Amino acid sequence: MYENPDGVMIGLEVHVQLNKLKTKVFCGCSTDYHNDPPNSHVCPVCLGLPGSLPVINKKAVESAIKIGLALNCNVEEHTQFYRKNYYYPDLPKGFQITQYDFPISSGGYILIEGEDGEHRVGITRAHMEEDPGRLVHEGTIDKSKYTLIDYNRSGMALIEIVSDPDMRSPKEARRYLDKLRNILEYLDIFDGDLEGALRVDANISIMGGQRAEIKNISSHRGAERALLFEIVRQKNVLRRGGVVVQETRHFDEAREITLSMRSKEEAHDYRYFPEPDLVPLKISGWAPAIKATLPELPDARRMRFVEQYSIADDHARALTSELKVAIFYEEVAKKAHPKTAAVWICDVLKGELNYRDLTIEAFKKEHMLSVIELLVSKKITEDGAVDIIRTLLDKGGSPIEIVKEKGLMKVEGDIVSMAAEEAIKENPAAVADFKAGKEKALNSLVGVVMKKTKGRADARAVREILLGNLG
Ligand SMILES: [Zn+2]
Predict the structure, then answer these.
(1) Which listed residue, of 14, 103, 201, 391, carries a Cα 20 to 30 Å from 449's Cα?
(2) Ligand 1 center to residue 68 CA distance, Å?
(3) Residue 377: inside a domain, yes or no?
(4) H-assigned helices in 310-439
């Protein structure tokens, strides 16, 4: 049971950009702007010019419902858009079209790996809104002399996913973000690698203080760093007898600190009122058909992997936490020994890829199949298999070529027995030590045999042979 000594309460507001849609949420501008010059994907609607009228993108509403269903939310009967009034250069029309009462969906949850096992984080609501423009500062926000504005992003469909304040540590917050991104990836509704695809605002309070909202977090690691900083800051304020006030703070990613921006606004500051240019939508009838199109989601796939391939839950979790890895595994497991495949993909391949900052696309599944086949048929040792995987990643080639080139074929039988006999004859001191009860002496004899066989014998088998000869 996790005690949560500081009474940390964290809730996250995640903005997901539906960047796989063809057009923006209220106009026909293309969403494919990421490689184009600033302000080249704009029109009177997304520039907020007077007299322009929004038209809802039906696909965006369907994606929003899909997200709600995947997060175990209830999809509402009716949904309605509102104007959130504020003046800021990223929003030239003076209000943002968003939702307030009657959001698309509410009352769901996500399961994460918490501080004390599986932990349920409530989803308050998931609603639609439009993205404002992007502000670009020279250097850091507090020192910049001017601000540039790019309206290519203005009017992109956003889904804001608001969690309950159920996370009790920065680590849980990061796990929540990982899991949420994982689910969205399975839904195939956004490309998480594009700029601005997923942005996080975090609300955090500790026992005895008010909550602070931290804006401008753009990575999962950033969220964890910002929250760690904020816990220390709030604790220091309280320790000095001060008061933690309710405010909005900005996360400076480069310096990994949060800076006070303004006292926190209340909902009434925004004078929300129903958007008169968009009709309310009756969406209850849409949900069943959309539900039927939902793909298998990470938790379901994890459970199926455990059941179907008899692999460990940890391995199933690691394999399904990235869609591409899950697909890679399943293709390999259908043709090879599923347990061996799970072990080698999770415990070796993923580590070697991470170390080189590569993704699963850098490794061919045919090569994984060959490596597993060589292992299962005992033609190579485990060390040999690691060597093949590393060589494939660093230099390319094929597993069979590498086995031939490096002489990795496992040696067995007489060659190993002879090497063991030689090792015993040539190392009387180690033999005496072993017989006197020093277990470690056996390791040095195994080492001698491995050297004699150029690392191509199976270390476990060598151990057995030596024990037999010494017994
Ligand atoms: Zn437009």
Answers:
(1) 391
(2) 26
(3) yes
(4) 313-320, 323-333, 338-343, 350-355, 365-376, 382-395, 399-406, 414-426, 428-435
What is the Å distance from ligand 1's center to 52 Cα? 10
Q: Is residue 421 part of a domain?
A: yes
Q: Which structural domain range is residue 382 located in? A: 298-406
User: To 5 degrees, how large is the angle CA 332–CA 337–CA 339?
Assistant: 95
Distance 158 CA to ligand 1 centre (A): 15
Same domain, 393 and 460: no
Domain count, the chain: 3
Q: Are residues 309 and 397 in the same domain?
A: yes
Please indicate, yes or no, whether residues 326 and 384 belong to a single structural domain of this protein.
yes
For residues 35 and 162, state if they share a domain: yes
Tell me the CA–centroid distance for residue 330 and ligand 1, in Å.
42
User: 155 C-alpha vs ligand 1 centroid, how far in Å?
Assistant: 7
Q: How many CB atoms lie within 10 A of CB 328?
A: 21
42 CA distance to ligand 1 centroid (A)?
Answer: 4
Please state the pTM of the whole predicted model: 0.85
395, 441: one domain: no
Weakly modelled stretches of the chain, pLDDT under 70? 141, 264-265, 267
Contact 170, 224 (CB under 8 A): yes
Q: pLDDT for 273-319, tens place per residue?
A: 999 999 999 998 999 999 999 999 999 999 999 999 999 999 999 99
Q: Residue 64 C-alpha to ligand 1 middle, in angstroms?
A: 20
Say if residues 340 and 375 touch (Cβ distance below 8 Å): yes
Q: How far is the CA of 127 from the centre of ligand 1 (A)?
A: 21
**Cα 145 to middle of ligand 1, angstroms:** 29
Position 144 scores a pLDDT of 82
Please give the sequence-ordered ranges of beta strands (E in DSSP) within 115-169, or none if there are none.
117-130, 134-137, 147-150, 157-163
Single residue among 242, 268, 291 that ends a domain in this structure: 291
Ligand 1 centroid – CA 286 distance (Å) = 26
pLDDT computed for residue 264 by the predictor? 65
CB distance 51 to 113 below 8 Å? no
